[in-house]
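Forwarding these from the shared drive since the link keeps breaking.
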Amino acid sequence: MSSYKPNEYSANATAQASSAGGAYAPTNATADAQLGTWFRAVDTDGSGQLTVHELQRALVNGDWSPFNIETVRMLVNMYDSDNSGTIGFEEFKGLWHYIEEWKGCFRTFDHDRSGSVDRQELHQALVAFGFNVSPAFVAKLIQKFDRYGTDVNSNGQGNITFDNFVQACVTVKTLTDSYRAIDTDHDGWIQISYDQFLDLVVRQRA
């Protein structure tokens, strides 16, 4: 899975971001020392490698809720350079800076500083990233990634937290890249075989 970054927004958004929110590492010269302390604190078996569940304990949203385990697995897949199924400290540093970039981006679109983005804010973010998505599709994304339920009108809150914002955006990017690889004439329409469809789904989940 591609380690997609909102590069066109991260620098400006990070500069504008306030210090409020979840427990994230500082982006100054002491960052490595701070990260080392946090890494050792969650490396409960002292192996020098973080499992998915150990990494989850290091990651929190702005409302202090833990990261969705599926988002954590996605991050491990991105930064597990040696395919060990775990994250070493050097990999952890890259992963953490990746999260920092996304945090700055998230704050840009979390206009009310609620620690989550609603349907309108998510739509603005995806359009800003260059994805021509409909409000109806965004509503489905909200239903999919709302940690408090899948029914926007009753069980869910109709918004998504930071961890699920990252997962939703990376998912849309990955699917869009797969689609564009087949849409060779760039007319917005494709015709694919059953095998091609399965290949798209499997690669998206890899």
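-- next protein --
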Amino acid sequence: MNQEKRYEYFANRHNYISGHPKLTDREIVENVHILNQEAEKFKKLVCVSCWNKSKNESAALWKIYSDLNKGIMITSKVTNIIEAFSGTSENIEFTEVVYINYNTDIMPDSNKWDPTYHKHKAYEYENEVRLIFTQNFDTTLTYDWNKEEVQEGKYVSLKIKDLIDEIIISPYAPQWFFELVKDISQKYGLNKPVMASELSKN
């Protein structure tokens, strides 16, 4: 749907923006291609931390997003997250994910961040919120990630003790893993409750 919208925009731009000439079919295709390329480049500048917005555990999310017998979930609150990142020098955006039907809905196309917080309705059960960091970039929409300690993301300073309320251990984890997480938490002075999943009690 968004591709059709982009073609329509360039085909009719001369009608509502003064100074823009009417484009040929070839020029329309070229402009849409450039816009698509820029969108792909921009994806590589954005780092996302995904959270589930719920007061309850999800059996589906444990199975999909954790190494079942070694999974860990941390709980937090919006106010905690804001406070935890309040001292960082990086600009972190905090937003809810908007779920749409890719076949019938049109994703907003007003800025480059729109695809970052839109997702297919098939994933609506995730009830997701995202922390979004965008790396500074030049006019070519590129950044050399080799400058960073890791190339798959971005280390950002935060107040970990403010971020975490509780640490929940996977319902599929063995007892030794539970004890290991407790020991590591104590070793590094985290001093947060380490609890077994509610699902492990059923």
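The chain is about 30% helix and 20% strand. The longest helix spans residues 25-43.

- D.
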